[in-house]
Amino acid sequence: MKKIIKAGMLGIGNVGRGTYQALEMNRHKIAESTGFDIEIVKILNRHPEKNRGIDIPKEKYTPDPDDILTDPEIDIVIELIGGIEPATEYMARAMQHGKSVVTANKAAIAANGKKLSRIAQENHVLLRFEAAVAGGIPILTSLTTALLSNRFSEVHGILNGTTNYILTQMAQYGKSYEEALSDAQAKGFAEADPTADVEGLDAANKLSILISLIFGVDASPEAIPTQGITKVGSADMVFAKESGYAIKLLASARESDGKVYGNVEPVLVPVSHPLASVGNEYNAVFVTGNAVDDLMFYGRGAGPLPTGSAVLGDVIGVARKLEKDSAYDIVPQLRYDSDPPFAGEGESKYYIRMMVPDRPGVLGVITTVFGQHGISMETIQQKAPYEEDGERVAPIIFIVFKTGKARLLEALEAIKGEGVIKSVDNIMRVEE
Ligand SMILES: NC(=O)c1ccc[n+]([C@@H]2O[C@H](COP(=O)([O-])OP(=O)(O)OC[C@H]3O[C@@H](n4cnc5c(N)ncnc54)[C@H](OP(=O)(O)O)[C@@H]3O)[C@@H](O)[C@H]2O)c1
User: Fold this and answer.
1) Three-state SS for 76?
2) What is the span of the domain harbouring residue 216?
3) Per-residue pLDDT tens for 350-363?
4) Which of 68, 93, 105, 365 has the least C-beta neighbours within 10 A?
């Protein structure tokens, strides 16, 4: 006899549909290999009249969250409504009613993971969120099971499919940022309002979760220095191609000298690095552990079925623990220690593209001011000058040796004060 596990699902959007569909597709296989017959018995649907494009018995729908959150028959609540509230409140209430929770919600976990983990522990239930980071890639489960013996020194993720698609299209087909964005929107890889993706906020939420899981450090998304891809232009793409780099929006964190650093920004990644070849809407996570060494996970970071696969993996994991009655984590997955404190971005090599007036002495002033700020130059490239608004101007690209971003920005302000820069058009980290 198969053990029946009853789940209630909040939301029937993209991931809700994908989760339901993946369960229907693989129900037999799941039951064969686990001994559980997982049933999604109730679904919160605030617009039952909407055609959801999937065949679900109408009687499963309820417009009232309490029908699920307080139902004594339900073992697991799957939260797929998204957003911080009311999702956090619903997850908290479900756990207070003795239900374990599975969610794909990075925004809610990044904002309220500490509180939700505490509620899970207090109520001896489980909180799982594999799908919240890198969609279908089982990175969190791998880090907390097969890789648990490692101490990790660094993690770099391509964690946002929208921005990776845009950057890939710009690099491969010479599209402008605007063209690549509307192409991504037409193909369903970007939302009508793409701000959270293109400004790096979505990746910062995911990095915040990874930092808490890998380094045990409290780094809220607001504390993570974050720069999106909106300033990346075709001049940057040309430089990258000519110089052996790919431009990727990386969410990176590392531990060194007893501190944890991290940030999200477009980075020049050498083409020889495995992350450089991760194209279009795909995601990847590259980690370095002190036993396993370098390891890269690659796959679909979004989409109904890939994300549904991760959600169901968590549901099965929770069901297994419930079966053994080891229903709560002795050690919570997420840790939020304040020692060491999160140290923001550390030092790095940087790429700076600026526009200067085409006149003698400009380069001398710039290099002198950089020198006064302790910043040394690795390469300088001046591009052909041209006429703009009645003035001859020239783009210049600098790569500077390792420095802190704050110091670099200070030096650029001082250079602006000398009146020798028309604009600083882009700054990107250079991965070594
Ligand atoms: N899309 C992906 O590929 C992906 C990948 C990884 C993680 N995620 C995460 O998965 C979650 C769901 O994403 P999604 O793409 O499935 O979103 P979605 O397509 O917008 O679906 C959200 C669903 O929740 C419902 N909903 C929203 N607020 C509600 C409320 N207050 N009360 C009741 N129902 C509510 C919506 O109802 P209506 O349809 O009636 O408006 C819709 O059915 C998010 O946390 C997202 O970050 C998504």
Assistant:
1) strand
2) 148-300
3) 999 999 999 999 99
4) 365
